[in-house]
Amino acid sequence: MPIRRVTSRVALVAVVVLLAGCGTQGPQAADPAPSGSRRTGEAAAHRAWAYEYVSDAAPVGNRVLDIAAVSRREAWAIAELHDSGGSGPRMQMLRFDGSRWQRYDLASDLRDALGTGTLSSPALHAGAGNAWLFARAGNGPGTFSTPIAARFDGTRWLAVALPKGSDMTGVAVLGPSDIWALGQPRQQTAWHWDGRGWTATRLPLEARAITTQTAGGDLRVAGNVPNPQADKADEPDPDHPKPRPLRLAAARWDGRQWREERMPDVETGDGRFPGCRTQVQTLVARGADDVWAMGIEYGPYTGTRYAPPGDRPCALHWDGEGWSRSDALPAGVLDAKRVRGGNGKVGRIARPPYVTGITGKVTEVDRKQVFRLAEIAPVPGTGEAWGVGTAELGASGDANFSRAVIVRYRP
Fold it and tell me: What is the pLDDT of residues 358-379, one digit of tens each?
């Protein structure tokens, strides 16, 4: 039986998070400037992030890892928290009920699926009023962890059996019985869950992103076409391989199979291997003829070593007829400290106030704390966004602390 063609008309949010995952590593890392400060040439701050949840302080390691917003009154987050007794960190689910964040006993719901194991590598996904969790269950050092999945049925989290050997990455929650999940890129497989079980579909590319909503159009994935010849170009210098030039591509689900759509080469400086020295990190559908594929375009290969002198956002746009390079980006939160308005201008988001240190006050040394976001998620039906991460102070001896935080942006 063919899997139905997706034509869901999920309401679009005003804020489109372009490059989610602005954590402490890579191009997205950001420590927003303190409220009230302004660098030369930088736009004035529109609004500041506001704290909605702040954990107790630990010497190190408290952080919120991921978040998914189901609606303006429901959201879920996963945090890594240290107990006051000094034991190691443990995963803790948090739930927003429309008024405040509080702890949720996920281990009780998933007791049978977890057994004596512990949760690791969690990823939350939401859409069409539904929430899903994909993670791994580990049983300690020297053992293999196994992938698990669960969905919230309105009352509790229920484990969902996964296909043997599958390892899901990007996920699109399009309905209570309409879930798509990407396998590892080199597997070139997309899985569909219809409420009863999973069906594998073959992809014509190594997919790394999927549209999390279709906005009246078709479901799409984006990634790159395998290029063995480009891989071999690294062999003369195995100690310092240059990034593989990627031939980017998308694919559209027509109800029976995935139809490949070629994307233009972003970089053509390498005559033998044109392409793009990045991965598509985010795929956003705002209409049937308005789809955006975005990532970070890294600088060119400059000799025996790779150096990224000109990293910048990279965007490709589908207009209903084909894909083209775009110098513009859709409006939305760009990262922890920047937001693009509908007029195309980029404004600054100020950081929230300093959190208290281990003394219960904000001392002079506590003002050295950094605020980092690991993930940003739009709030459906609003122009708002959630952010999760940490507020921490390091390299200050006994004053060091770490607090897991959840913040909210209201334009």
Answer: 999 999 999 999 999 999 999 9
Task: State the pTM of this model.
Answer: 0.83
pLDDT one-digit tens code per residue, 91-118: 999 999 999 999 999 999 999 988 888 8
* Contact by Cβ (8 Å): 253, 219: yes
- Report the percent of the chain where pLDDT is more than 70: 75
Residues 367 and 363: their CA atoms lie apart, in Å, by 7
Closest CA to 8 of 152, 209, 178: 178
Q: Residues 12, 374: contact at Cβ < 8 Å?
A: no
DSSP string for 384-396: -EEEEEEEEE-SS
**In this structure, are strands 45-48 and 346-350 parallel, antiparallel, or unpaired?**
parallel
State the burial class of residue 202 (Cβ atoms within 10 Å of its Cβ: 0-12, 13-18, 19+): exposed
SS3 percent helix, strand, coil of the chain, rounded to 5, is: 5, 45, 50
Give strand pairing partners of 2: none
Return the C-alpha torsion angle 169, 170, 175, 176, nearest 10.
20
- Where would I find the beta strands (DSSP E) of 290-398? 290-297, 312-318, 323-326, 332-335, 338-340, 346-350, 370-378, 385-393
Distances (CA, A) of 111 to 103, 119, 147, 199: 17, 11, 15, 26
The residue count of the chain comes to 411
Can you tell me which residue has the tokens 């003369």?
Answer: 236
